[in-house]
Design brief:
Blueprint (H helix, E strand, L loop, with lengths): L2 H10 L5 E3 L11 H4 L2 H4 L5 H4 L2 E6 L2 E5 L4 H22 L14 E6 L2 H12 L8 E3 L10 E6 L9 H13 L30 H13 L4 H7 L6 H4 L10 H18 L1 H12 L3 H11 L4 H16 L14
Parallel strand pairs: 3-4, 4-6
Antiparallel strand pairs: 1-5, 2-3, 5-6
Helix pairs in contact: 5-7, 7-8, 8-11, 9-11, 9-14
Bound molecules: zinc ion.
The site of zinc ion has 6 residues, from helix 7 and helix 8.
């Protein structure tokens, strides 16, 4: 395929559903698609050639990789099985997918290195590669749709954000009705190209990213706990966090973690009421609910942050009656 026909095909692509992994977003923008040499495209190895290993962890997870060792495959499967169990314990959601969701299984696609990811992932998955990995939800309402996580191994062989991305998959299947564009955010970037204009805030970015961090890291999130001491944000402000405005890695991921964790641990009835709306895709009523909360929890959130900040300082010691749980 020539560069031009490839680019036209790219524009016509079905809109993949994806979430950013901005924790790992590189400031260096490398676009292998725009820079691809047309002559090279004809030689492009297929995804099956590059990611030639397949390992099924469970009914809900398959690993496809270039170079994961058997031990690394086993470790990844065990790690994600624990995440899945934690998620379903938290939400009592096992076996209760939202309506019209056919994403029965996630396939994690792991390239051998960042270099290989940049070279191939753009053409294999029609996605940008100036990031640390992506979750492509696809069209969950379509039978046969395949949800994909695409990432790469780091220097030590580990795959960053694997747990976080798997939580996105679980959240999309068990908590949030509809696809990525249906939920509330302000990202219009390709390959998603969600329609403009963005809806008004409040969004769901604090929840999707913050809850994913909470399930992935549990109470062990030292970077977030350090930020808690700054009291930089009120809870009522964090509901307006976006990807394009009111954003930044700390605000999206670390403050999102603090907001989601506070709600889940201290305001569970409110979360359950919210989840009823999200599972039905009733996003206008979600926004009305969050607006009705207003600033009512700001003071308690601030006090909770103070407690967490002091607990974080002694996190390596058993504190809080020894309840400090490791991942
Ligand atoms: Zn994410």
């Amino acid at each position: 395929m020539t560069k031009m026909t490839f680019l036209i095909a790219l524009q016509r692509l079905q809109r993949n559903r994806w979430l950013k992994s901005s924790l790992l977003m590189s400031s260096l923008v490398i676009c292998n698609i725009a820079n691809a040499n047309p002559a090279d495209n004809t030689k492009m190895a297929s995804v099956d050639q590059i990611l030639s290993q397949q390992h099924q962890c469970s009914a809900s997870l398959t690993l496809r990789s270039a170079a994961l060792t058997p031990a690394q495959q086993q470790a990844a499967c065990a790690q994600l099985a624990a995440i899945e169990q934690r998620f379903h314990q938290l939400f009592q959601s096992a076996g209760k997918a939202v309506r019209h969701d056919h994403n029965t299984m996630l396939r994690a696609n792991i390239y051998q290195s960042k270099q290989q990811y940049v070279e191939f992932a753009g053409q294999h998955f029609q996605m940008p590669t100036d990031n640390g990995g992506m979750y492509l939800e696809g069209f969950p309402d379509q039978p046969g749709n395949q949800a994909e996580f695409v990432a790469y191994q780091r220097e030590q062989g580990q795959v960053w954000n694997l747990s976080h991305e798997f939580v996105h998959y679980l959240d999309g299947r068990f908590n949030l009705y509809g696809d990525f564009c249906a939920t509330l955010h302000d990202s219009h970037a390709p390959p998603e190209n969600c329609p403009t204009p963005a809806p008004d805030t409040p969004y769901l970015v604090w929840w999707t990213e913050g809850m994913a961090e909470y399930v992935a890291h549990g109470t062990e999130n030292q970077e977030a706990l350090k930020l808690a001491a700054t009291q930089q944000f009120k809870l009522s402000e964090l509901f307006h966090t976006g990807y394009e405005r009111n954003h930044g890695s700390d605000r999206i991921y670390r403050w999102g973690y603090l907001a989601a964790r506070y709600l889940l641990e201290q305001q569970r009835p409110k979360v359950d009421g919210m989840l009823k709306l999200l599972r039905n895709g009733d996003y206008p009523r979600y926004q009305a609910l969050v607006r009705s909360w207003g600033t009512s929890m700001d003071q308690e959130f601030s006090q909770w942050l103070t407690q967490q900040a002091s607990a974080g300082k002694t996190a390596l010691q058993p504190v809080n009656n020894g309840k400090y749980s490791a991942n």
